[in-house]
Design a protein that fits this description.
With about 70 residues, the protein is an all-beta fold. It contains no helices and 5 strands. It is globular.
Length: about 70
Amino acid sequence: EEAAALFHVPDPEQVVFTLKDGKAMWNYVQTGLENMTEYTVTGDGMKEGVQVIVTGNVNLAHEAPVTVEN
């Protein structure tokens, strides 16, 4: 399964899911610099150290319970 954190939604918003207190949190973001594999991302809820959900996130909803598997 390919990992992806950034979703494009209508109007042309972009969304990243982060993990907070065991729940998926929907964050509207803006992208900046990018290359073939990485983006810089800024927006509400995006700060250093935040956990970004990169797999299993296609069918997530805001505040859906999430279990982290290592």
